[in-house]
Amino acid sequence: MIRVEVRTARGDVLESTSADPDFDPVQLVVDRDAYPILGHLDPYGDTFLNRMQAKPLKAEIARVRMEDTRLVR
């Protein structure tokens, strides 16, 4: 399962969300041109993003939700 957490520099969790267990960007072949951040998340390990990447990722997740509600809750 993919879990996204927004943390402070000290590691405190500010916000979090998780993908549906069926969401697998490798098997679903997430379009990396359409979703440049979401398409590059490591489904098998940790991916660390800076604060400038967090806002576009949030927008990409919102777009995925509108396009296919089974992918991200």
TrEMBL record:
Full protein name: Uncharacterized protein
Highest taxon in the source lineage: Bacteria
Lineage: Bacteria, Bacillati, Actinomycetota, Actinomycetes, Pseudonocardiales
